[in-house]
Amino acid sequence: MTTVSVAGLRVSYGNRAVLDDLAIELGVGVHGLLGPNGAGKTTLMRVLATVLRPDRGEVRLLGHRTDDRVGLRQARRRLGYLPQAFGFYPRFTVREFVEYFAWLREMPAARIPLAVDRAIERVGLRDRADDRMKHLSGGMLRRAGIAQAIVNAPRVLLLDEPTAGLDPEQRVEFRTLLRELGRDAVVLVSTHLVEDVAAACARVSLVDDGRLVFAGHPEGLIAAGGDGDSGDSPIERGYTAVLRGARQVSR
Amino acid sequence: MTGRLLRLHLRARGASAFVAGASAIALLAWAGGTWLAAQPHLGGPAARLPVVVLAPLLAAVLLGPTLAGADEELERGTPLRWPAWRVGHVLLAVLAVATALALTGLRAPETFGAQALARNTLGWIGLVAGATALLGARLAWLPAFGYGCVVYLAAPRDAGVFVALWAWPVQPATAAASWLAAGGVLALGLAGYAYRGSAVGHRLPSRPVTI
User: Fold this and answer.
1) Domain layout of chain A by residue ranges
2) Does residue A248 sit in helix, strand or coil?
3) Partner-chain residue, chosen from A51, A72, A99, that has the shortest CB–CB distance to B73
4) Closest chain A residue to B81 measured between Cα atoms?
5) Model confidence pLDDT, tens digit, residues A98-107
């Protein structure tokens, strides 16, 4: 079932189109969003997170059009978002930070304490739940950010570079968490780490220069690569092959 | 809305630091205003012009950082009715600061006393709120501070309506046009801030999604 639908999306900064006529459909499961720097991944995530309004195009989240006020509020209640870099609240403890976003997402009051504890536990921060945010390491802050994104059990979860700052063991644990979350939610993970995509994502989309140049299973991306393509792993070779092919076509 | 959400929101916005700072400003305004008003050779109560300009301006400057969260983008992607919260935030601050400062000027309320302090609170907070929508909370103090310096240094003494409109912070409380100007600035600033929230630099959506 498609729960995120984007059609004819165009976003520009000044005269430069960052996303141009982009269409994408996402259903339940973990989706990887790949692309080089400046390809438009973060812009797409911001549009889906409803913090950036596109120049044109239609965005539907969980069946709600985001240009409709009522639909937008309903979609936002079931949305989780971790930006690429987020400002944290130094006076808050981890628990208060996660709780604050549970309230902001208008969760029922009675469900909040348990949901907060569960989200903190899922990201492995139970021992640090009462520490102030300003005392956390970069990786812990990232995990606190993931906790606030999942506290409302979102049906659409958008994670922009979620594994930045995590150590290898934490990344492995995070992939497990992703698979769990992807059982009943749309999880879109924007990343440069193609091995994360190969390990945790059921589908992958590749964006280059504001256009969608590949959408399919990771195996399809792997199959696109050949021995002559650059890269240290099959999926890296597929990634570079698809990018090269797309750029040749656009010339 | 619940008390718990309100408490968390106030902590997220550093409300306690603002209250402490605004209280200190009110105390200084009371001490400075009382001393100036007691100096006949300086003109008595009319000598309180610096206090009337500076105290509400400093309180408005202190309010600036509270008008944005640590991550505006993260907050505005949530379903809370942010425009209503923003309006409430600013009006509550106006009420608290205007009341506190007006109390300091009640002993001799005429000319540059309680009423002028309240009027300037409306104007300066409106200016800071509007600047927050355009420049972001960190830089919101700049236009108000710059304008305050210019008006205070120019200190026009003419009684015309046009002068009262542009130099509202240094007008006596009896100048009706100055109230109109300060009220207008508050209305515009409040509307801009309610609609846009705090500008957030390069990550600011040029067309924010509002609810």
Assistant:
1) 84-153
2) helix
3) A51
4) A73
5) 999 999 999 9
